[in-house]
Amino acid sequence: MFIDPFGRAITYLRISVTDRCNLRCVYCMPKEGLSKIPPQAGQWQVRSDQLSVEEIVRVVETAAKGGVNRIRLTGGEPLVHPQVVEIVRRIASIPGIEEVSLTTNAMLLERLAQPLADAGLKRVNISLDSLDIDKFKRITRGGDLNRVWKGIAAAERARLAPLKLNTVIVRGLNADELPAFARLTMENDWHVRFIEVMPIGNAQDWGEGFPAPRERYFSVQEMGVALSTFDLQPVTAPAGNGPARTYKIPGARGTIGFISPLGEHFCESCNRLRLTSDGKLRSCLVIPNEVSLREAARTGKPLEKYFYQAVANKPKQHNMCVSMPTDTQRGMSQLGG
Ligand code: SAM
Ligand code: SF4
Hints:
About 25% of the residues lie in helices and about 15% in strands. The chain has 9 helices and 12 strands.
C-alpha cells in the first residue's frame, strides 16, 4: 500500500495523457498556447518525451499493486490523444483498477463516447463554463457550445454516468450564470460542481473585456449567496465527487457541488497522485516536487521506488493563496487540473 507520511492512503491516480489541447480557456492557457507562458511554466512538451501507451500501462500496473484503484485521464485535452480509446481499454483491464474516468472539454466526445464506454470507461466529467454560446466561445477562445451538448447527449446514450459538469467560476465573467447552471440539475440527473478559479498558469492579462487578475476570484461562500434563493439541502455526495461539498435543490434530479481548492482546501483527505504526460509523478497539484519515472518506464525497470519517493514527498497541505500566482512550474494544462 502507498501510505504517505501523514497516514493518507493513495488510491487515486490522475494521468495527464497529453499537454495538447484543442481549446485555449482563458484561465488555463494563453491564446498563443504554452510556449508563451514565462519560462517557469514550461513549453509544449517534446512528443518523444511523452509516455507511450505501453509506458502508461506499466505505470498503472505498478500503481494498482500499490493500492491505486481509480484512474482519471486528463490533459491538456485527453480526447485529442490519438490512442485514448486504447489507453482506456488497456488500463481498465489491469487487475485492481476498479474505475477509469476522464475529464474533457467534450469537443470530441460525440464521436468518442461510445468507443470509450465500450473500452471500459465508466464516467466523464465535462468542463463547461458558460451556457451562452458567445460567452462560451470567448472563454474557451473558439469552443462550440453545441458540440458540448452533443457530447453530453452521446455520453448519456453510452451510459457514462453519473455525469458531472465542472464549472470554474470567475467574477465578472460567468458568476452571473450560477443560477442557470443550478437550474440544469432540476431536470437532469447531472452533478454540477462549481470550482474556485486557482491562480495557476493564468496570472497574465486575458485580453479586452476580461477581468483583471486581482478581480477574478469568487469564493464558494459568495457562490452560496448567489444561489441562496434555491434552498439548497446538503446531501451525500455521488460516487467520485471527491472534494466537493454537495447539495440538492429540493425535488431536483441532480446535485450541486462546491469545490474550494483555496478557501477550504481539502488536503487532509487527499488520496491522489498525478502523472504528467512526460512521465513525472507529482504528489501535489500546487507544489512542484516531481519524481521522473520516464526512463525506467521506457527501459522496463521496476517502478515501485518512484511511487514510494513521490508518496514520501507528499506535503501535508498546499500553500496556494488567492492573491499570488502560484509557482507550480507547470500550467494547469500540463498538470491535468
Ligand atoms: N481539457 C480537459 C478539460 O478542460 O476538462 C481536461 C484538462 S483541464 C486542465 C482539467 C480541469 O482543470 C478543467 O475542469 C478546467 O476547468 C480546470 N482548470 C484549468 N485551469 C484552472 C484554473 N486556473 N483554476 C481552476 N480550474 C482550472
Ligand atoms: Fe484545454 Fe481543458 Fe485547459 Fe480548457 S481547461 S484550455 S479545455 S486543458
